[in-house]
Amino acid sequence: MKGNSEEKLMKTYWMRSAFQKNKASSKSTLIASLFFCLLPLLFLAAWINLAKYACFSSQKALQNNPSNSDLQFPLNCSIWIQTNTCPKYYPTSYKPSNPNPLLNPKCPEFFRWIHEDLRPWRETGITTEMVEKARKTAHFRLVILDGKIYVEKFRQSIQTRALFTMWGILQLMRWYPGKLPDLELMFDCDDRPVIQAKHFQRPDSGPPPLFRYCSDWKSLDIVFPDWSFWGWAETNIKPWRIVLKDMREGNKKTKWEDRVPYAYWRGNPNVCPWRADLMKCNVTDKNDWNTRLYVQDWDKEAKIGYKQSNVADQCTHRYKIYIEGWAWSVSEKYILACDSPTLLMTPRWHDFFIRGMIPQQHYWPVRDNDKCKSLKFAVDYGNNHTQKAKAIGEAGSSFIHNDLKMENVYDYIFHLLNEYAKLFKYKPTIPPNAMELCAEAMACPSYGIWKEFMELSLEKSPSNSIPCTMPPPYEPQELKSFIDAKVKSTKEVEGWENEYWEKQIKNK
Predict the structure, then answer these.
(1) In the predicted model, what is the mean pLDDT of residues 368-374?
(2) How far apart are CA 279 and CA 293, in angstroms?
(3) What pairs with residue 90 in β-bridges?
(4) Which residue of 115, 158, 203, 501 sits 20 to 30 Å from the alpha carbon of 246, by its own alpha carbon?
(5) How far is CA 259 from the centre of its chain?
(6) Segment 407-437, tens digit of pLDDT
(7) How far, in Å, CA of 120 to CA of 109, rounded?
(8) What is the mean pLDDT of residues 60-79?
(9) Band of the pLDDT at 101, cuts 50, 70, 90?
(10) pLDDT(508) > 90
(11) Spatial distance between the Cα atoms of 147 and 332, rounded to a whole number of angstroms
């Protein structure tokens, strides 16, 4: 999965002639001609499923009937193979079957953090100079102009993070065709935030707007849903719609009361000191901290076909542990979806949704600076208060399955980009080195599991409803009260924990 095959994929995507400004070479044209001459023979030999490469039966119907709720626009690889250009007949508007805002649900509360993430530019707006400053660490620049997407690549991301992040934005364009405004953004696919707030304290300091997967309270990086919502091919984790369905089925296999009454974690402990420290809490002949911890060797997993890494098969213990990696961890949403209380180690970073979750309601807070004792108390407490523990597990899982369903992920990105675009002080243009992106340009030349995941996460038709209704920004006192309540709930747990260990000492 890694190494040469991954490098080959990136070369296929970033270096092919389709993304050059000049037209396809005569050699490419010759290859395409030979392909179509041989296509009937390949079909007879059952080498190719022609359904994947079928043209639309009526391009005119696509353009002239945008109100059709059954509108379909699957991959059209035949046009891509012939011309190496994006199709020209994607719908630029549509009429959903449920267009009434009054009937549309309100967005989940965590959407309110969009306003907070964009607050640094609320007064000054966003200028081209600010955006250019974000280029320093960005992996790519993405421009949306007149309903089309253009990308300029700066450097290679870890694995295929950049690839599937762009794919996700393309799927949003297919989900809400013609609804995204013109904008330009810089995206950094690395783990940790880099725009430190302390360097931009003056009202006119102009911090660079930089998008990434997580941030922290000291940084101004704008959080965005991670690439794995459309599939994490390197670890064989499927797109989010499929994972959620599988996890619902996995949760039914073992009732919470019948699950192993310990805290479970599986992951790579070598990425950071705090994970290595967690492994000291594993069960031994001398100590049992109520944990069952396992090392995940991804290279070994790849060789045996990921038989032990299916997240839907890991809902077998009463408690699940979430601990960050080098920064926030992709594993967070999979752990929370298990119907088992998540023992959430004190976080340093946040993604786009965790700020809407509440300790003792959606998860159980665990101290990072005294892991073993904190974990043992959490499990003992839960096993002695089973109704409360089960309720926390169900509430956290319900949040993930309902508030974080794929439709809401798209709506979060939609509202984030719309609010972001409102701040622009200039009209974006297509960068000289940019290339137009479409689903065909990315999926048709891909291969293996990367192409499989793109096909699985492809949005073949627009949404039947308009985006959820965006909640208003927090009032300052309202936001303070919300944060104070979360702190108070965490401190309450820490107080119970202190009492627990004081009793243990007295009883010795």
Answers:
(1) 97
(2) 7
(3) none
(4) 158
(5) 29
(6) 999 999 999 999 999 999 999 999 999 999 9
(7) 21
(8) 62
(9) low
(10) no
(11) 33
C-alpha pair distances (Å), 314 with each of 262, 264, 376: 13, 9, 20
Q: Which one, of 234, 239, 238, 228, lies nearest residue 268 by Cα?
A: 234
In degrees and rounded to multiples of 5, residue 178 shows phi and psi of 75, 5
* Amino acid identity at 211: F
Give strand pairing partners of 437. Answer: 149
Buried b (16+ CB within 10 A) or exposed e, 476-499: eeeeeeeeeebeeebeebeeebee
Give the Cβ contact number of residue 296 at 10 Å: 15
Q: Hey, what are 383's tokens? A: 């096993």
The residue behind tokens 């059952």 is 46
Provide the pLDDT confidence category of residue 309 given band limits of 50, 70 and 90: low
Burial class (CB within 10 angstroms; exposed 0-12, middle 13-18, buried 19+) of 475 = exposed
Strand segments, DSSP code E, in 222-324 are: 222-223, 260-267, 291-295, 317-322
Note the pLDDT of residue 41: 36
Q: What is the pLDDT of residue 53?
A: 32
Task: Locate 117 and state its tokens.
Answer: 């993430």
Q: The sheet that has 222-223: what strands, in order across it?
A: 222-223, 210-212, 183-187, 140-145, 148-153, 435-437
CA of 298: how far to CAs of 162, 219, 380, in Å? 20, 31, 32
CA-wise closest residue to 73 among 63, 85, 83: 63
The residue type found at 352 is F
Q: So what's the pLDDT on residue 35?
A: 40
225, 168 in Cβ contact below 8 A?
yes
Distance separating the N- and C-terminal Cα atoms of the chain: 53
Question: Residue 268: CB partners within 8 Å, gap ≥ 6?
Answer: 275, 295, 296, 297, 298, 325
CA–CA dist 7, 16 (Å, integer): 13
Which string of DSSP letters, residue by residue, matches 158-212?
STTHHHHHHHHHHHHHHHSTT-SPPEEEEE--SSS---BGGG--STT-----EEE
Neighbour count for residue 281 (Cβ, 10 Å): 22
**Confidence tier at 5 by pLDDT (50, 70, 90):** low
**Residue at token pair 């159980």:** 364
Look at residues 153, 224, 216, 114 and name the one whose alpha carbon lies nearest to residue 11: 153
In sequence order, what are the residues at sequence separation of 6 or more whose Cβ sits closer than 8 angstroms to the Cβ of residue 273? none
